Amino acid sequence: MADNAVNGLPAHDVSAAQGKMLALFARMVGATRVLEIGTLGAYSTIWMARALPIGGKVVTIEYDERHAATAQRNIDRAGLNELVELHVGKALDVLPTLAGPFDLIFIDADKPNNPHYLRWALRLSRSGTVIVGDNVVRGGAVKDPASDDANVQGVRAFLEMIGSEPRLDATAIQTVGEKGWDGFALAIVRD
């Protein structure tokens, strides 16, 4: 993450504890194919790639070219080129070009588009796919239905979609630590 700060990336990476949790999720589901929407500097990408077996793949999408260049350097430095496929562009443009299914899908990009990302996650999943969404507590702001913050509104719509989607069984996991009070949405695609 130090390289991210040096290159001026925002401090939006998952924490080390959250990265470890993502790696454990990948191992728990026996993931061989992971989709990540929102790479930033590839910190979470690296955690998940290191959890994969030989032949596994993390397909990750980053909108910002500068962020993607830093991410690629971090992936190179970690020696994970064979396990990571980095796409640069708008996720909603890249997602239709991908072939599923994925075993684990991590959504951590621009929050107003979370509902669209969830629709794509469902298209690119199979029974048993785990879908994880980051930043779903936002310091408690998500519980305020009157919030006019686009990020909060995107997360609220995302959570409402998860709750009403019959193909998903889900919960939220609150996290408290170096990044404050936030959390993950954790869902599994049903048969």
Structure explained in plain terms:
The structure is a single chain. The chain has helices at 2-6, 16-28, 43-50, 65-77, 91-94, 114-123, 150-164, and strands at residues 33-37, 57-62, 84-88, 104-107, 130-134, 168-177, 180-189. The chain is α/β, with parallel strands linked by helices and 191 residues long. A seven-stranded mixed beta sheet has the order 3-2-1-4-5-7-6, sandwiched between helices. β2, α4 and β3 (84-88) form a beta-alpha-beta unit. The longest helix has 15 residues, at 150-164. The protein is globular and about 45 Å long. The model has no long low-confidence stretch (mean pLDDT 90).
Q: Tell me the structural class.
A: alpha/beta
Rg computed from alpha carbons, rounded to a whole number of angstroms: 15 Å
Approximate shape: globular
Mean pLDDT: 90
The description of the largest β-sheet is: 7 strands, mixed
Count all strands and give the number.
Answer: 7
Order of helices and strands: HHEHEHEHEHEHEE
Approximate helicity band: 25-40%
Neighbour order of strands in the largest sheet = 3-2-1-4-5-7-6
Sum this structure up briefly.
The protein has 191 residues and is α/β, with parallel strands linked by helices. It contains seven helices and seven strands.
Task: Please describe the topology of this protein.
Blueprint lengths: L1 H5 L9 H13 L4 E5 L5 H8 L6 E6 L2 H13 L6 E5 L2 H4 L9 E4 L6 H10 L6 E5 L15 H15 L3 E10 L2 E10 L2
Parallel strand pairs: 1-2, 1-4, 2-3, 4-5
Antiparallel strand pairs: 5-7, 6-7
Helix pairs in contact: 2-3, 6-7
